[in-house]
Structures are given as structure tokens and as C-alpha cells.
Amino acid sequence: YVTTRRMAHDDIERAHVQAETFAALVATTAEAILTYDMEGRIISWNPAAERLYGYTEEEALGQSVELLYPPGWPTRVLEYRDQIMAGKLRQFNAVRVAKDGTERHVTIACTPIRTLSGDIVSISNIHHDVTATRKAEEVRDLVSREVIHRAKNMLSLVTAMQRQTASSAASLAEFNKSFGDRIQALARSTDLLVDGGWSSVDLAQLVRAQLDPFLHLQGKGVDVAGSTVALGPQALQLIGMALHELATNSTKYGVMSGGGGDIRCHWSHTEQGGLRFQWIESGITFDPSAKKASGFGSKVLSVLAPAMVDGSADTVTSEDALTWTVTIPAAHLGKVT
Q1: What is the pTM of this model?
Q2: What sign results for the dihedral spanned by CA atoms 31, 68, 91, 23?
Q3: Pick from 68, 129, 67: nearest CA to 93
Q4: How far apart are CA 304 and CA 90, in angstroms?
Q5: Please, are residues 286 and 249 in contact by the beta-carbon 8 Å criterion?
Q6: How many other C-beta atoms are found inside a 10 Å radius of the C-beta of residue 280?
Q7: Residue 239 has pLDDT above 60, yes or no
Q8: Which helix (H) or strand (E) holds 175?
Q9: Closest CA to 182 of 204, 164, 201, 167
Q10: Which ranges of 30-125 does DSSP label H, i.e. alpha helix?
């Protein structure tokens, strides 16, 4: 009899220690743990749950676990309960909402809690916060899609360059020279875009980058004037290509060919918040018929450039001047930092 009582006492002690150990684990774990009864009402709520969702234990106890559900969540708590009881659901991903309205992406491990006789009396949930991981994945996916989109645009642009340059080149050597120069001009714009985090680039910086190779060789200067403007990716490529074509044209027929005259690159904002950019080359002896070719450069200035940004472009020539004007909508301008 004494031995039996001692064994029973030891069993009680072990059960007490196990219960205390479990309670300590629940209280100190970083995982949010809660349980709810068969009607979906919260009956336990650990400190980690309070940290994750912002509700104190007093605020959470007795409330439906749907307190945490975002509006329109498709699965109700009793549906979850039935699936868990049937052994069909042990873990799932969900979005839950904290007291301050912040959405939390969580992975929920769930299990039924039974009495000694095997009856299910409540459901236990462990909520593992994966919000940071989900956001990182969303950013990664967004960046991946953007990179793919821009890569396709770049390949389309290079293909157009190759085709148009080939159609107007008189020889393989001329093609290699023109196509190589255009690729380098595109690379200069892309380098600026990469340095700017693929968001925006200062217009004055772009003008310098595209014209410096020409000005270094010709010993010429360009009057650059305009307010601080940040270009988005499409506008950057547009003006970068146009500047290269205009400067190339100038080395053949205009100021950079060794004659007199001057070049001005001026820009200003439109009334709608967009950009009006002008290349003004004046004081030169110019035969307008020499610039009426339908090569890639001409298409860049008259067709491709405005089409890239849903804008407009216009080229005006006279016997001693050339003015190219492009208007770019505000949607293609970045934020000035």
C-alpha cells in the first residue's frame, strides 16, 4: 500500500514538473502560441502572441480567434477546427491582422488537445511570423520581373539598332563603327541607371556622360542649362540615344565637324510638370538635304524617342541652325534627391 501511494505521488510529481516545464516553454518561447475552445474562443494566449498581435492576454481571452482574421478571409475558424479534428490539417499559411491593423504573414502549426479519455476539448495553434520573409520574396519577385522586363526592352532596342544600322551602312566597317558607337552610348546611359539604383538619373549628368567623348575629341564646349531634373529609365534611354545621334550628326555636318557655331542643351519643365528638352545647334553652314536621311539616327529623333515615353518630338532646320525638341510627360521623370 505504501509503495502504491509512493508511485502515485511520484507520478503526480512528474506530471507537475512536466506541466511546469511546458508552461515555462510556452511563456518564454519566441513563437506565438494560443489555444481556442470548440467554439473558436481563445482560452490561452502567451506573451509572444501579445508581442506579435498587440493584444494583451486580458483583451484576447474569450474573444473569437477570428479577431485576428483580415476582412473577407475565406476560411472560418470552425472550418479549420473540423479539418484539424479530422486529421486533415496540421500546418497552413495565413495572413492575420494585429491590433494596430498591421498584417502578419504566419505559418500556423495546429493540433487538437485531448482529455485522458481521448475527447478533443480545444485546438492549439503555434503562429510563426514569416512577414519579413514574405516581403523579401515579394521584393525579389518584383525586382526579377522588372529586370526581365528591362532586359527584354534592352534586347528589343539593341535589335532595332542592329537592323537599322545594317540597313543604312555602306560597308561592314561602317556598320561595325556605327553599331559599336551606339552600343557604347547605350552602355553609358545604362551605367548611370545602375549607379542610380535603376530608379532615376540626373539629366545634367547624362548630358555630360554622352557628350564628353565627342567634346574631348573636338575641343568644343556645349552650353548646358536647366533646372535639376531626374529622368526615369525610359526617358534616360531616350535622351541618351538622341544625344549620341545629335552629336554624331554634328561631327559630320555641324559644329563638331570643325567649323564655327555653338551648341546649347537647354531644358525646362512644362506646365503639366513634364520636361521640354532642346538641342540647339546654330551658326553653322548647313545643307538641309544632308540631314534628311532615313537612317537609325533620324528614326531615333523623330519616331523612336517620342514613342518610348508617349511624348512628342520635332526637328526644325534652316540654312544655319538645327533645333531638336522633345517633350516628355511627368510620368517618366523621377524624384529629385
Answers
A1: 0.56
A2: positive
A3: 129
A4: 57
A5: no
A6: 16
A7: yes
A8: helix 172-195
A9: 164
A10: 47-53, 57-60, 77-85
The DSSP bridge partners found for residue 37 are 122
Highest mean pLDDT among 25-39, 67-81, 261-275: 67-81
Cα 111 to Cα 34: distance, rounded to the nearest angstrom:
11
Which residues have a Cβ under 8 Å from the Cβ of 98 and sit 6 or more positions away? 52, 53, 54, 55, 68, 104
Q: Which residue pairs, CB below 8 angstroms and at least 24 apart, start in 106-110?
A: 106/32, 106/52, 106/130, 106/131, 110/80, 110/84
Q: Look at 61-65, 213-217, 248-252 and tell me which has the smallest mean pLDDT.
A: 213-217
Whose CA is closest to 266, among 252, 255, 281?
Answer: 281
Distance CA 148, CA 274 (A): 27
* Residues whose CB is less than 8 angstroms from the CB of residue 269 and which lie 6 or more positions away in sequence, other chains included: 227, 229, 275, 276
Instruction: Give whole-number Cα distances, 206 to 230, 276, 293, in Å.
Output: 10, 15, 26
- Interatomic CA distance for residues 124 and 29, integer angstroms: 15
Distance CA 71, CA 75 (A): 11
CA distance 320 to 326: 20
**Burial of 63 (C-beta count, 10 Å sphere; 0-12/13-18/19+):** middle
C-alpha distances in Å from residue 150, one per residue of 11, 91, 146, 190: 69, 39, 6, 11
Of 85, 89, 170, 87, nearest in space to 120 by CA: 85
Residue range 127-154: average pLDDT? 76
> How many Å from the N-terminal Cα to the C-terminal Cα in the chain?
86
Question: Is 283 in a helix, a strand, or coil?
Answer: coil
Strand order in the sheet with 223-225: 223-225, 262-269, 275-282, 321-328, 312-317
Neighbours of 31 (CB within 10 A): 17
| H-run or E-run covering 250 | helix 233-253
Indicate if the pLDDT at residue 7 is higher than 80: no
Where helices occur in 196-227 by DSSP H, the ranges are 203-218
